[in-house]
Amino acid sequence: MVEAQFINRFLQPSGQSYFIFGPRGTGKSTWLKTFYPQALRIDFLNPAVLRQYMAYPERLEETVRAASSKTIIIDEVQKLPEILNIVHLLIEEQQGFQFILTGSSSRKLKRAGVNLLAGRAVLRYLHPFMAAELGEDFSLNQALQYGLVPLIIESSEVASTLQAYINLYLQEEVKAENLVRNIGNFSRFLEVMSFSHGSILNISNIARECEISRKLIEGYLEVLSDLLLSFQIPVFTLRAKRETVSHPKFYYFDTGVYNSLRPANFLDKPSEIDGPGLEGLVAQHLRAWNDYQGSPNKIYYWRTRHGLEVDFIVHGKLGLFAIEVKNSKQIFKNDLKGLESFCEDYPEASPLILYRGKDRLQKGKILCLPVEIFLKQLNPNQDILYCK
């Protein structure tokens, strides 16, 4: 548990109107109260407020014009996509209004054909905590077990809050919004997908395991992505000298969510759960690090048809980084094989191994870093090289 106090986040406010998307519990409301304490706030999570605006959307214009603040926050805007038409008109008036629109899902906005204000508002994302935001309060073992969603790790009952968090999404987002017809099938799908966390997507295998159609699995994956509960990274193919695989890798957005959904039994080895969990923890950090910079980099993985693999390739203006994650306290010669092969094809790459040991090691061109130190130093105000 992290003590409930305000923790500075790397997300920075914008001077214009903007969206803030992020899963439930990532701290959007706390962040907004800190930066905009005097703003007019309209919360669509409040059923009474939502009913008022559903019945009469023009109420927004009347409310905004009468407000003493030019900054207007609309929480969970996806619950009433039609309201964006009025927001658009008010922004076009150029009367100094700034709208900050939060959402934990993009599904209804996409289905309603909303164009996200035709570029009049920028997109921002709020992620679970990064280790560097928590500082000395960050614990690698705790993060692997419970994740880094603020709502969960600031709770006095972390384990039960984590389980309730999953049920919150099933009941309030999936069931209430009629996103799927069969909640039982979807619950089974969530569990099965935990075995694909950090793995290449094989939709046919997932469909067989869930005993439902491939098309339905594709729809479920879209629901997960739209609810911001998962993400995928593509394979790196730029100037490819070897034949690579074509399917993306799948991750739940937070290691705690993965760990909660992953069924465990006494036959499981800890590495079978912690290995994908550690890789996912690095993935969510890289994703947050990139988004908080304005997404100047692209994040990939690399895998050849012959099985050579590197967990993450980060490619941007500042360089090409190849990162391998090992859930072990020692580095063996075979652990270097994927990075060495990648560097043969891309000699300009900076290779890193992140592992569970305590020492910095240099093995040829490859720098080996303790993963906990790397995560604590990963800061959107710096590039990856700073972590060295």
Structure notes:
The chain is α/β, with parallel strands linked by helices. The protein has two domains: 108 residues, Rossmann fold; 256 residues, no CATH class. 39% of the residues lie in helices and 18% in strands. It has a six-stranded mixed beta sheet, sandwiched between helices. It has a five-stranded parallel beta sheet with strand order 2-3-4-1-5. α7 crosses α13. The two termini are 29 Å apart. 37% of the residues are buried.
Brief synopsis:
With 388 residues, the chain is α/β, with parallel strands linked by helices.
| Helical content band | 25-40%
- Termini separation: 29 Å
Task: From the alpha carbons, calculate the radius of gyration and give it in angstroms.
Answer: 22 Å
- Secondary structure tally: strands: 14
Helices and strands in order:
Layout: E1 18-21, H1 28-35, E2 40-43, H2 47-55, H3 59-66, E3 71-75, H4 83-92, E4 98-103, H5 107-111, E5 122-125, H6 131-134, H7 140-146, H8 150-153, H9 158-175, H10 183-193, E6 199-200, H11 203-210, H12 214-226, E7 230-233, E8 249-252, H13 255-261, H14 270-292, E9 298-303, E10 309-316, E11 319-325, H15 337-345, E12 350-355, E13 361-363, E14 366-370, H16 371-377
Parallel strand pairs: 1-4, 1-5, 2-3, 3-4, 11-12, 12-14
Antiparallel strand pairs: 6-8, 7-8, 9-10, 10-11, 13-14
Helix pairs in contact: 7-13, 11-12, 13-14
